[in-house]
Design brief:
2 domains, Alpha-D-Glucose-1,6-Bisphosphate, Chain A, domain 4, 15 strands, alpha+beta, disordered N terminus, 7 helices, 7-stranded antiparallel sheet
C-alpha cells in the first residue's frame, strides 16, 4: 500500500465561528491501474471490504446502488456504542475520472453531519492517484476530527484492497437479459463456467441472494479443484456479489462481483475479485488467473452465441 502521509489529512477550514464547516482533502497514490482503483472505489462488494476504518468497527450495508441517482445506506457498528447511520446518493459517476456523492450521518435518529464527497482519479499507467475532497457541515461536536480519522484510515484500506483486486472485462455478443439468464440459470452456468478445457461437477446450486454453489472444477488433466460460492447481493440484470471459498465451507479465497452493462446492443461484463491477501493475489496472478478468467468470459461469449 502506498500513500502520501503528509497529504492524507490536509484540512482547509471555512469557519463561521462555530466550527461547523470544513473542507478536508485526502490524497493517495496506489499501486494499481486506475480502472482497478475505480472498481474498488465504486463496486459494493469491494466497498464492504475496505469501508471499516479499524478492526473494532463493523460496517453493514443496507442498500448499495452504484449509479447516478442510486442510494447507499450503511450502519457503522462499534460494540457498546449506538450505531452510526450513513445515508447518501451518487450524483456523478465518470468511470476512471470522477465521482461525487452526498452523505448524511446520524445516530439514534439525530443528524450529526452532512457532506459532499468528490473523488478525482489520475491515471499513471500501472499506478493511479486519488484525491478525495470532503465539504463537511457538522451539526455535532468532533465530526471534523472523526471525518479526518475515518477517511484517512478508510483510504489506506482502499489502497490495500485495490492492490489485491483483479478486474476482468469482456463485451459479450448478446443482450443483457440473455447474458444474465446464461449466468443465473443453474442448468446453464455449469456448462460454460471455467477456463478452456475445464468442466464443472455440481453438488448443490441455488443462484439467489443467500444461496450457494458447491462444485468441483475439473482440469484437463483430471485434477479436481473444490469450490464453494456464497451469494450475497443479486440485482437482476445488473450485478451480483459472492464469496469464494476453497472447497465446501473452506477458507475464504476472495470477495467477488459481476456487473452487467448495455453496450450497443451487447453486454459489457465486469468480473472483479478482492483476494484475501496480497500473497493470495500474487499467487493467483502467478498461475495465470487473469488469462484463465478471460477464457471463462470467452466461453460465456461462445455459449450465448451458439444458442443464438
Amino acid at each position: 500500500m502506498t500513500s502520501n502521509p503528509a497529504a492524507s489529512g490536509a484540512v482547509t477550514a471555512r469557519d463561521d465561528g462555530t466550527g461547523r464547516f470544513a473542507t478536508l482533502t485526502f490524497e493517495r497514490e496506489v499501486a494499481a491501474p486506475v480502472s482497478v482503483l475505480w472498481q474498488a472505489w465504486t463496486a459494493p462488494a469491494a466497498r464492504t471490504v475496505w469501508a471499516a476504518p479499524s478492526p473494532s468497527v463493523t460496517v453493514e450495508f443496507l442498500e448499495a446502488d452504484t449509479r447516478v441517482g442510486g442510494r447507499e445506506v450503511s450502519l457503522c457498528k462499534v460494540a457498546g456504542e449506538p450505531d452510526v447511520r450513513c445515508e447518501g446518493g451518487w450524483l456523478v459517476l465518470q468511470p476512471d475520472v470522477c465521482s461525487v456523492n452526498d452523505e448524511v450521518i446520524s445516530s439514534e435518529g439525530v443528524t450529526q453531519s452532512a457532506a459532499l464527497v468528490t473523488a478525482d482519479f489520475s491515471d499513471f499507467g500501472a499506478r493511479s492517484g486519488l484525491v478525495v475532497t470532503v465539504q463537511l457541515s457538522s451539526l455535532a461536536a468532533n465530526m471534523e476530527q472523526g471525518y479526518r480519522q475515518g477517511f484517512a484510515a478508510g483510504l489506506d484500506n482502499l489502497a490495500g484492497v485495490a492492490e489485491r483486486t483483479m478486474v476482468l472485462q469482456r463485451v459479450i455478443r448478446a443482450p443483457r437479459a440473455v447474458v444474465w439468464s446464461a449466468w443465473m440459470n443453474p442448468e446453464t452456468l455449469p456448462q460454460w463456467w471455467g477456463p478452456d478445457g475445464f468442466s464443472c461437477r455440481t453438488s448443490r446450486i441455488d443462484l439467489r441472494a443467500g444461496g450457494e454453489w458447491v462444485f468441483d472444477m475439473i482440469g484437463p488433466d483430471g485434477t479436481v479443484y473444490p469450490n464453494h460460492h456464497l451469494y450475497g447481493e443479486v440485482r437482476t440484470q445488473e450485478r451480483l456479489g459472492y464469496t469464494l471459498l476453497w472447497g465446501e465451507n473452506g477458507p475464504r479465497h476472495a470477495d467477488a462481483w459481476a456487473s452487467f452493462e448495455d453496450q450497443d446492443g451487447f453486454t459489457k461484463v465486469t468480473l472483479g475479485m478482492v483476494f484475501t491477501s496480497a500473497a493470495e493475489f500474487q499467487t493467483a496472478r502467478g498461475f495465470g488467473a487473469i488469462e484463465l478468467g478471460l477464457q471463462t468470459l470467452g466461453k460465456l461469449d461462445g455459449f450465448v452465441a451458439a444458442r443464438g
